[in-house]
Specification:
The protein is α+β, with helices and mostly antiparallel strands and 135 residues long. Helix content is 27%, strand content 33%. The chain is globular and about 60 Å long.
Length: 135
């Protein structure tokens, strides 16, 4: 096998591994085991209600948009590409939360799963039920 073929295979395999490593859909979240104490406390107090209303996918959380128009972005920063918009009162599905650019005193961002994966500033999304887990 030529050096060029080996190099092409190595580059392709590396790109595939890098994509798999950053794809939220395949993230190992240890759902049943190792949650932080603050997460498990908030989840245990409202888990019964949460499970009754959201049995279709227990890995998702819910939130309601409080901004009149919320820009949902490709990264947890205000300068990243706008993927789509969410509007006041809209219920959104939250996969997880992460730290990002500070928006009006709040550095948390939620990864939303409604049709496309997009980041929304937590400053403008109120949780319905327990706080989302960390990404």
């Amino acid at each position: 096998m030529s050096l060029r073929s080996r190099l092409s295979i190595t580059v392709a395999a590396g790109a595939l591994l890098a994509t798999a490593a950053v794809t939220p859909a395949v993230a190992n979240d240890d759902w049943n085991g190792s949650q932080s104490s603050s997460q498990s406390d908030s989840q245990s107090s409202s888990r019964g209600d949460w499970g009754q209303h959201h049995q279709s996918n227990p890995r998702l959380y819910k939130g309601v948009v409080t901004a009149s128009t919320l820009r949902l972005r490709s990264k947890p920063t205000t300068g990243s590409q706008v993927i789509r918009y969410a509007y006041q009162g809209e219920i959104v599905s939250i996969f997880c939360k992460t730290g990002g650019q500070n928006v009006d005193g709040n550095h948390l961002w939620y990864l939303l799963t409604d049709g496309t994966w997009a980041w929304g500033a937590a400053r403008y999304i109120n949780n319905i039920g327990p706080a989302p887990r960390w990404c």
